[in-house]
Design goal:
Length: 463
């Protein structure tokens, strides 16, 4: 996603608005219930059947608002929801460049009743959103409950969960003579070379031009590259020079070097500035692309983009730690309910979010990790993970008193790890392809920026 340097006038142009129902705001009536219900209090089909309301959801999934979408559209989901709750009408507004514009909308107050929570400091959560319940209770209800937790209250529920890996075309791998999935960065680069040598496919499609796709590389720094659930929110914050070469094919250095080496060895697009996000979906389906580094959420989109869904595979990122592979796993965007909404709309929103989490089948349909704590029905995207005994690693929360430290270090260093840091990853490709800066020089700059931020924030160096 792009950084937050947009003018407010861009909001109207960027929004793709679909009113799924014809119900007018004037048709809303007060619920006969009293008080705002919590997530755990909702019994679907029983709780809130007397509620009549129109609520609005702000989402990043503009594709699901289009009738041409190859998966399940929002219209289909709402059709099912209204079979259970015919008097709760849901209007959907989809926004492109969501990370930046949604934050502007949040701060301006004009966004509706439910939104996918953008990047904010956790201390601000209670100012904007309703608590779904206390952490102990919510951990029994959903996975990834700590993601938007503050002072023991949970303010966000994931729409789906993602594991971080690599999309690949099985047919291209076979044509290239790749018989085993690569488990180290060296093996992966060698596989890309075989694809270039023996097929007509682009070995690694970077999606450079889309921008936001570059930020995907940040998602591998934790569990995938270290196997440590504490790394991202605890160890990294207190590590001196975290982008150094550990000389064992692990950690951040190894992750980003894959991209640098691929670009330097011309194993990417001929012209990375002209990549096409929508077009690449059909390309990998047709065997014109060998691999793409994206989260598991992209799996079903690539399958549905052409006539060869069975050719799409998903493997863990090629890093092995002490003989074992890991995959970072965590939530996608999370639902938040407007703290300033009416009581009736808060309750209607609570019911809709619980239905979407437990009954819609959205996570499975999108190739994601199911969010309900009791749902272990994982889709086909994770077949290779199971076959290779890849362990999922979900990041532990930050230590007490440090919940906003990561954001502070990101801002000070301007590296914006997992927070729209697309530019820094794009520059890796630029320097590698043009030979303007060595990889080690780039990492030294990042280390210096991180260290300066640590000093500014008074961070104790422990590692």
């Amino acid at each position: 996603m792009k950084k937050l340097f947009k003018v407010l006038s861009a909001i109207a142009a960027a929004a793709v608005i679909l009113s799924i129902t014809a119900c007018s705001k004037k048709e809303q009536t007060k619920s006969s219930s009293t008080g705002v219900i919590s997530y755990s209090q909702v019994e679907l089909g029983k709780t809130g059947t007397e509620i009549s309301a129109t609520i609005k959801l702000l989402t990043h999934r503009t594709d699901m608002l289009q009738s041409s979408y190859t998966g399940v559209t929002f219209a289909k989901y709402l059709e099912e929801f209204n079979k259970l709750y015919p008097n709760i009408k849901v209007e959907i507004e989809g926004i492109t460049d969501y990370a930046s514009i949604a934050l502007l909308r949040l701060q301006g107050g004009d966004w509706g009743d439910i939104m996918m929570i953008p990047a904010i400091d956790k201390k601000e959560l209670k100012n904007y959103f309703v608590s779904f319940g206390d952490l102990k209770t919510m951990e029994k209800q959903i996975k990834f409950a700590t993601n938007w937790e503050y002072e023991n209250q949970v303010y966000g529920i994931p729409s789906t969960g993602n594991a971080q890996g690599v999309l690949y075309n099985k047919k291209v791998f076979k044509q290239a003579g790749i018989t085993k999935l690569p488990k180290t960065t060296d093996e992966f680069i060698q596989a890309l070379k075989l694809i270039k040598e023996k097929t007509n496919a682009i070995p690694l499609y970077t999606n450079y031009a889309a921008g936001w796709t570059m930020g995907a590389w940040d998602a591998y720094l934790g569990g995938s590259a270290t196997g440590d659930a504490d790394y991202m929110n605890n160890v990294l914050l207190h590590t001196k020079n975290p982008f150094k070469n550990y000389n064992d094919g692990t950690h951040a250095y190894a992750v980003y070097k894959v991209l640098y080496d691929a670009a330097a060895n011309k194993l990417i697009e001929d012209d990375y500035t002209t990549t096409d996000w929508e077009g690449c979906k059909g390309m990998i389906n047709r065997g014109e692309i060998g691999t793409m580094v994206l989260g598991s959420w992209a799996f079903t989109q690539m399958q549905g983009a052409g006539p060869n869904p069975d050719d799409i595979g998903y493997m863990s990122f090629p890093i092995t730690i002490n003989g074992k592979q890991y995959a970072s796993a965590g939530p996608d965007y999370c639902f938040g309910i407007n703290a300033k909404a009416s009581e009736t709309n808060k309750n209607a929103a609570m019911i809709f979010v619980k239905w979407f989490t437990e009954k819609s089948g959205f996570a499975y349909n999108e190739g994601g990790i199911p969010i309900s704590a009791e749902d272990n029905n994982y889709p086909a995207a994770y077949a290779a993970f199971s076959e290779n005994n890849v362990a999922f690693v979900s990041d532990n929360p930050a230590a007490a008193g440090e919940s906003d430290l990561f954001n502070a270090l990101n801002s000070e260093s301007e590296l914006n790890i997992n927070a729209g840091g697309n530019l820094k990853v794009q520059q890796i490709i630029e320097h590698a392809a043009n030979g303007t800066k060595s990889f080690d020089a780039i990492m030294e700059e990042w280390n210096a920026a991180w260290s300066k931020a640590q000093t500014s924030e008074g961070v104790e160096i422990k590692y």
